[in-house]
């Protein structure tokens, strides 16, 4: 995975809380595309983002999307001297992925993960590695559940 620029004055957890506090505030497909570029390449100017998109998108569209990400608190805008303004992601990819999955599970299965997991497991040929990883995740969840029950 690419690098994420973290800034001392911005708490990633605060940005994640901001993301979580707005239901349906997941990045749009276009915003997600820009975030992915920033995660991969770090700080970029508008023209650098525009060049790296690899498809025909207007320069002002890129600028608008970047500024929306700044407004949402997911990207920071930086200006140094006479250099072009640069943009850098301040939210971790995992935070976006988690909120998107949480929102999806809530919206599609009313918060139950069983139908989603069952569909994915039954509808896909899983490798031995993926099966082992799923078993590990379930064992860890069972341990957490047992610890929570014992703490009550």
Describe this structure in words.
It is a single chain. By secondary structure, this protein is mostly helical. The protein is built from seven helices and three strands. The termini are far apart. 13% of the residues are buried.
Distance between the termini: 39 Å
Give the tally of structural domains: 2
- Identify the CATH class of the largest domain: Mainly Alpha
Record field, number of beta strands = 3
Radius of gyration: 19 Å
What name goes with the CATH superfamily of the largest domain? Winged helix-like DNA-binding domain superfamily/Winged helix DNA-binding domain
Shape: elongated
Main β-sheet description: 3 strands, antiparallel
In the CATH hierarchy, the architecture of the largest domain is Orthogonal Bundle
Category from helices, strands and their pairing: mainly alpha
Strand content is 5-15%
Order of helices and strands: HHEHHEEHHH
CATH T-level topology of the largest domain: Arc Repressor Mutant, subunit A
Sequence-ordered SSE layout with sheet pairings:
Elements: H1 12-20, H2 29-41, E1 44-45, H3 46-52, H4 59-72, E2 75-78, E3 86-89, H5 93-109, H6 114-122, H7 128-151
Antiparallel strand pairs: 1-3, 2-3
Helix pairs in contact: 3-4
In short:
With 152 residues, this protein is mainly alpha-helical. The protein contains seven helices and three strands; from the N terminus they run ααβααββααα.
Keyphrases for this structure?
three-stranded antiparallel β-sheet, 152 residues, elongated, Arc Repressor Mutant, subunit A, 2 domains, mainly alpha, 7% strand, disordered N terminus
């Amino acid at each position: 995975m690419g690098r994420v620029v973290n800034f001392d004055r911005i708490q990633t957890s605060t940005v994640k809380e901001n993301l979580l506090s707005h239901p349906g505030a997941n990045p749009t497909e276009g915003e997600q595309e820009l975030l992915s570029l920033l995660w991969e390449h770090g700080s970029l100017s508008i023209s650098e983002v525009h060049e790296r998109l690899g498809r025909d998108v207007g320069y002002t569209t890129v600028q608008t999307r970047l500024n929306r990400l700044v407004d949402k608190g997911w990207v920071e805008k930086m200006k140094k001297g006479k250099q072009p303004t640069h943009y850098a992601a301040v939210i971790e990819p995992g935070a976006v992925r988690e909120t998107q999955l949480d929102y999806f599970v809530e919206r599609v299965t009313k918060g139950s993960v069983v139908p989603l997991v069952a569909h994915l497991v039954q509808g896909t040929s899983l490798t031995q590695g993926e099966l082992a990883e799923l078993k590990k995740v379930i064992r860890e969840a069972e341990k957490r559940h047992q610890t929570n029950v014992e703490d009550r």
